[in-house]
Every structure is written in C-alpha cells, then in structure tokens.
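Z., the sequence and structure:
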Amino acid sequence: MSPTPGDADPRRQVPRTDTLLADERLAAAGARLGRGLVKDAVQAVQQRIRSGELAPPDAVDAVLSVLPATASSLRPVLNATGVLVHTNLGRSPLSEVAVEAMVAAAGTTDVELDLLSGRRGPRGAGAIDALLAAVPAAGAAIVVNNCAAALALVATALGQDRELVIARGELVEIGDGFRIPELLAATGARLREVGTTNRVTLEDYRDAVHDETGAVLKVHPSNFVVRGFTRSVPVHELAGALGPDGVPLVADVGSGLLRPHPLLPDEPDLQSTLAAGADLVLASGDKLLGGPQAGLVLGRADLVARLRRHPLYRALRVDKTTLAALEATLRGPLPPVQQMLAADVETLRERARAIVARLGAAGVDASVVDAEARVGGGGAPEHPLPSAAVSLPASFAEPLRQGEPPVVGYLDDGRTLLDLRSLPPSSDEALAAAVLAVAAR
C-alpha cells in the first residue's frame, strides 16, 4: 500500500515534545539543568527534523549533544592568548581550593554567626584576617565588589562635598570607557587637579591642600606609560609632606600584587605602598592576587572603620562565596595566575614541543615558536614575559574559538598562535584534542 500524501508530511515525523521530554535521559537532564532549558533544546531539534536536516530517530542524541554542561550560559574557555589576566575571559582563573571554598560556602554558612555564642558575628572575619596576615602593614581591611567600588566608597566617605586632590596625569581611562574623573565626580566630591599631564611636583600638592580637602589620591596609571619630560611624586615623599595626622593619602595600586615581584619591578604592591606611608591602599582581587572579583581596601584602622560605617558600604559589600574564595586564595597554594607568572620558559617550550609532536603525527601543520606573553588587566604594560606557543595555520583561529571547548589564541604574521604561558599544564591534553578536532573536519 502506497503512503498517502499526509504520510509524507515531515511534520508527522517529528517526535512530540512531551514524548521527547519523557525520555529517561532527557528527563534526567531536565532534573539537572531545568525543564525549560531542555525544552528549548528539544524545540530546536524538532525544527531541524522538520527541515530534513536530522532523522527522527536521532532526536534524543541531538538534544543531548547541544545541552550545556551547566544551567549557566557561561562556557569554560582555554585561554591561549598569552594574556594572564584577560578581562574578556574573566580575569584570573581561581585555584582549586578557592573553587572548593565557594562550593562549601554556597549553602547555609556561618558568614555572620558566631557559633560559640550563638550571636551575630563579624562578616567575613576569616577573609579579613587572611588579608591582614598577607599585608602586615595594614591595620584593618574591608572588601567590596570591585576596585571601582572601593574608589567610589572612599571618594564618597572622605570627599563628598569636599575636594579630592589628584594629579592630572592620573585622571586615567581604563577598560570599556571607564574614566576615573567621572567616577569621582559622580560621588559628589570636587576634583582638585594638580600639575600637568606629564609633570607634578610636591609643591603642587602642598599648594592644593587646605581645610576643604577630603583626601589626596594617587592612581597608578596601570595600562600605559608616559616617557620623556615627566615627573611624579612617590608615595613616601607625599606621605612625609602630608604628615601622620594630616589629610589622608589614598593610593589605588590596581593590580592586587601583595608584595614586590622580581619580574614586575615597576608594579606597585600593597605592602610596600602602605609601608611607604599611604593611609589607605585600594586594589583588585581578581588580577595578580589571583582571587575572585573584589575591591580590597587596607590601611589605617580609623579610616577603614569610617568606610565600614558609611551607608554605601552595605550596597557594595561582597557575598559569602566571594569571601570564601578570597580567603582560600590568600591561605592556599599559589593561585594559577602566580604559577603562570613564575613559569619557566624552557618548560613552556617542552610543553609546546610535546603538543606539536602529537599534532604533527596526525598531519597537522604545527610548529613551536617563541612568543611574548603579557600580564594583562592593566598590569606591567612594559614588561613582556618570554613564552612559547604552538603555531598553526591562520584558518584554525575561528573554528578553535567556536569549538568545544572554545580555544582563544591570536593571529600573528599569518599564523594562529596558541601561547602556553596563559594555560595550565593540565589543559595541554584538551588543547591538543581541540586542534585535532578542527583538523578532522
């Protein structure tokens, strides 16, 4: 018996939505990811069947293949850019102990409860204690949700309806059009600019400070360098001129380096800046510190207490998982970004040679090349880091970026380069597999 025209209608061949959702594998996925997300994937696969792209018996497998690993749209990425702190890729990757701490803190925790007394306890005391142990020059510390928030809190608490003195050369713009002077002005503080774009003297600061001065700010121009006929005033000179009981000196050091690092001689660190006489230092938690996104404020206990009591602090404070990750980063082993920074270039070359040997055996045009990595995140713009990269044809860049997992490298002189300094050794297998998957298409 020949089929009727209705039997040939592709819509009759499409499995019903409720039938697919009832499949035990998709039902399990729905319990893990949420029924709505799985249903969306089912409907997309049904459309592929209607268009003749997919056979009906393959529907369940097709749905499973497009479901994400988690209910979040964020995808893990292999960072082969050579930029250790890549803002577009989430800045510093967290250490395993930080991730474990976040998972443990995700449930019900004693974040503001003293279990001994049964009364309310200080929020995030463990993270604060870890910060103070790492930066002994600080008398107290608080944590807010990023460094811009730290600067906004300081400007509001110390400078609202008062003047903030800052050198013209430090009124900088950083990523995504974010400008320091606009942030400061938005807090209600009045900016008192001193010096010129390229030169400022101690006398410029002295002449600007008066009874209406709320604070003197120093902002590290982290992502650029001005050379030539230049002059700035270091923290120790400025602190000496302001005096121990004078106008507060606040230094935004940016990158979150705890102590001096031999590879980054020009990068300011929290301990040295406080020891030089700054009353408060501000920094990011997710750059060279290697922790979660956070704004760190350390320094004089009376000033930190003043910030903590300000109403804006409540709006800017961090959650329990951030506190947990920050404490674990400070107390645990070296975080990934510090390991990447300390990587030996010959070891990087050995890793690259092993990957290239595997790719070459599969017929892939791959070679080992020397490369220059960068700190990123606005840190140490004039200090490239020697590195090694896997060189591939330029045609690999886009499919690698769109693959699973996505691999982000960069193009240089007509080749795709995958820099290994920004990747942990544990990712080498996944990197090679991703390249081989692209080559097999």
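The CA atoms of residues 356 and 366 lie 6 Å apart. The chain has a mean pLDDT of 91.

Let me know what you think.
H.
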